[in-house]
Amino acid sequence: MLDLMISPQSIEAVKDIISKGSKFVILAHRNPDGDAVGSTTALALFLRSLGKVADIILPNSFPDFLAWLPAAADIVNAECEKERSLELIRDADALFCLDFNALSRIGELAGAVEHSNAPRVLVDHHPLPEDVFEVQISHPAACSTSELVFRLIYHIGTLEALTKEMAESVYTGMMTDTGNFAYASNRKDIYIIISCLIAAGIDKDIIYRRVFYNYTVNRLKLVGFMMYDKLRVMPAYNAALLTLSYKEMRRFNVSKGDTEGVVNMPLQIKGVRFVCFFREEVPGKINVSLRSVDDFPCNLVAAEFFAGGGHKNASGGEVYGTMEYATERFRTALAKYKELLTK
Asked: Which of 112, 120, 238, 317 could lock onto 89 through a cystine, CB 3.0 to 4.6 A?
């Protein structure tokens, strides 16, 4: 029914690890998004259905609009429970590393994962993974890590093993990582998988409302301010820039998830192909989100100018310094890539 994506050798390797172990830890990247939370909760529910102990550890908190997800209440926040997190990693029979391709993406947990004697299983869709994983399931063609988790459940446990709760987590991850299937979602397998999730009992319309109609009042005020006062369109480059300073974040009492999806909004402007969003969450450290359409490789910009990386059309990085310095870096990037942006 589905095209073969995960190799039979990788499936057998994961089966063997699961059969031999009893306690597993599932990790995802810092500043977890819908795919990170969706994929980890889906896999945890599946492992628990097999009678295993499966703990989810995230480096820091996730957005409130994902708190309804099954098993989300069990997630261990390493920022708040560091010692417990390290103990769970030490005691694990295997570590499942989801939705990140480099140990630096899990912050202070990286050392414990690197020095663990337990096998590390990578399940991810970002390009160029580090060579630190005993089992590597890395497929940039997948729309999300949640799609890959579905495939593992499908191959290891069959569709009968897929519960409504697992399906809700998988759908949330797929939906959020494709902008509600607006990009990176033009493969027929995605819709075969969605039909299987609906057959498992999900209501995709309710999931959409729980995620996208679940913001704070501050979020709406913030978006209005950013679109009116902070948006800078650069027609000569078919690009747009958004900036949000630490002072402005405090003014709007920004909480986790309030800036989610804002970077995509300027892509609605006719002619805009590339968007950069600078967000100063702590003074002097600026998080960078990049989005593009068509064939413009924003991941190359992320790697070259912002010490980051990611997908061709969705990438990120960071800058240490002032907002003026970050903006100048962006202008330099635009000048270098002008030919690609305007062709």
From this structure: 112
Q: What is the pTM of this model?
A: 0.91
- Judgement on whether residues 145 and 266 belong to the same structural domain of the protein: no
Q: Are 148 and 4 in contact (CB under 8 A)?
A: no
Q: Strands (DSSP E) along the chain, which ranges?
A: 23-27, 53-58, 76-77, 94-98, 120-124, 135-138, 232-234, 239-244, 274-282, 285-292, 309-310, 314-320
Q: Going from the first residue of the chain to its last (343 residues), give the mean pLDDT of each consecutive group of 10, the final group possibly shorter.
A: 91 97 97 96 97 97 94 97 97 98 94 97 94 96 97 89 97 95 92 97 97 91 97 98 96 89 95 97 95 94 93 92 97 97 93
Gyration radius of the chain over CA positions: 20
Domains identified in the chain, total number: 2
Please count the CA atoms within 13 angstroms of the CA of 60 that sit on its side-chain side. 11
Q: Which of 152, 180, 212 is the last residue of a domain?
A: 212
Instruction: Give the side-chain half-sphere CA count within 13 A for 156.
Output: 24
Range of the domain at 268: 217-342
Same domain, 282 and 178: no
CATH of residue 306's domain is 3.10.310.30
